[in-house]
Design goal:
This protein has 132 residues and is an alpha+beta fold. The chain contains five helices and five strands. The chain is elongated, with a radius of gyration of 18 Å.
Length: 132
């Protein structure tokens, strides 16, 4: 591990932003000062999915993780957290970068919601055309 106290990574997805700090520890995950399972309201799928980058490199029990996440919905937040954890791992362990990159954990999904245009109902939806 690096000489600093923790490893830091920032991840974004849709309108969600997550910053992750990985401390040496026993595998405790805290999101916005709540345990991960409580933050995702007992949804074990989401709570387990955020640890996928760690599971890939067999380091689930090596770090205590503190995550600060803002904006977006649950799905966007989960993807932002995964990206933040993967980036933090590459800061401390540069040899893991190729493994995480092959599994596409370091890829930022840039798709965002398209803005509404004036004169239309939504971004592209419009009134039905009438010829007469």
């Amino acid at each position: 591990m690096a000489d600093s106290k923790y490893l830091y990574g920032l991840g974004r997805r849709k309108s969600a932003t997550a910053s992750a700090r990985l401390f040496a520890g026993k595998g405790k995950v805290t999101i916005n000062d709540k345990p991960a399972i409580e933050y995702f309201s007992d949804n074990k799928t989401h709570a387990g999915e955020i640890l996928d980058p760690l599971a890939l490199v067999n380091k689930q029990k090596d770090f205590d993780i503190t995550i600060l996440v803002k904006g977006g919905g649950i799905a966007g937040q989960v993807d932002a957290i995964k990206l933040a954890i993967a980036k933090a791992l590459t800061v401390g362990f540069t040899d893991l970068r190729s493994t995480l990159k092959k599994a596409e954990f370091l890829k930022r999904d840039s798709r965002e919601k398209e803005r509404k245009k004036y004169g239309l109902r939504s971004a592209r939806k419009r009134e039905q055309f009438s010829k007469r």
